[in-house]
Amino acid sequence: MDPDHSYTESLLRNLVAYEQGYNDISSKLVTDYITCMDCLINTGEDVELSGCCGIIENHLGDHEVVATMFNRLHDSLLISKDEFYYTEMFIKVNNHYRKTWNRWKANLRENYFNTPWTFISFLAAVFLLILTVIQTVFTVILLSLIVSKYCKALFQIIRHAVVTHVETI
């Protein structure tokens, strides 16, 4: 086992033991932090993503080691739901997740627009669709002008024919 890993895990375990051993401490910040991190981190990929987002810094090396450490640390914790430090954050995250629009956006980003090229292709397709609609509108307008011209000319021919036919009778 890596010495840094054993030191980090042992330090966190001692801090948790200190918090849980003394009833004078009302807020269990380390315990709550480990619980929060365990909710965020399940795999090495979660550790890598958390590191990219600036949530944690991994000085232990392997991402799987960090994930395993947080999962093991959380197994033996006693958590007070009434005094949980991150309750408000959990509520906000759950409320954000429950909104249908946010889930749709996440689904679109993850499944359809996961690379810049798919987004650029989408914009190009929308642009071409708009150009096609504009072309169709102008074609209909032009066609209606041509038809109205021919209808006027046809109407004048028919009227002239009717007038000439009436005069001959």
Characterise this structure.
This protein is mainly alpha-helical and 169 residues long. The chain is built from seven helices and no strands. The model has no long low-confidence stretch (mean pLDDT 84).
Output the number of helix runs: 7
Helix content: over 70%
- Using the alpha-carbon principal axes, give the shape: rod-shaped
* DSSP, total strands: 0
Q: Round the mean pLDDT to the nearest integer and report it.
A: 84
N-to-C span: 117 Å
What are the secondary-structure elements, in order, as H or E? HHHHHHH
Assembly classification? single chain
State which percent range the strand residues make up.
under 5%
> What does the radius of gyration come to?
35 Å
SS-based structural class?
mainly alpha
Question: Low-confidence segments, ≥5 residues, pLDDT <50?
Answer: none
For the sheet with most strands, the description reads: none
List keywords for this structure.
77% helix, single chain, mainly alpha, 169 residues, 7 helices
In short:
The protein has 169 residues and is mainly alpha-helical. The protein is built from seven helices and no strands.
